[in-house]
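To start, one record:
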Amino acid sequence: MNNTISIRPAQGADVEAVRACAHDAYEQYIAAIGHKPAPMTADYAGLIASGHVHVATDAQSDVLGVIVFYPDGSDMMLENIAVHSEATGRGIGKRLIGFCESSAKQSGLNAVRLYTNEKMIENLSIYPHLGYREIERRTEQGFNRVFFVKDI
């Protein structure tokens, strides 16, 4: 199996592939949350146009993962990360998060912040394993969110 993965800025032509990746990654949570998770309804065309979206692609240029991040004050806000279900377990999510952290360092930022839904149980253990610490829980826009930060 060819494990060549590249990370690049998303382009306008990627909008549908980015949406499809997010839908595939998050649809499993609809029942637990009671409605579509926020990443399933995001304005990916606008986020891509703003330069906030990067994609992980394979040798055939298929989009296997998506990450949305942007500077927010002195921190990098990691808004969304999604890996296509057929590509899970290959370290793509970890590479995308590492890319975000490296971008934050290169930009002279202090930390990476992110949040996840409290119903996404796997994430509540994955992020601490990657060095993130939980800092808050609150309800926003109808979602019960758990906030994390990692100093860089």
User: Anything to note?
Assistant: The chain has a mean pLDDT of 94. The beta strands are 6-9, 53-57, 63-72, 75-83, 111-117, 133-140, 143-151. The chain is about 30% helix and 35% strand. Helices lie at 15-26, 30-33, 44-49, 92-106, 121-129.
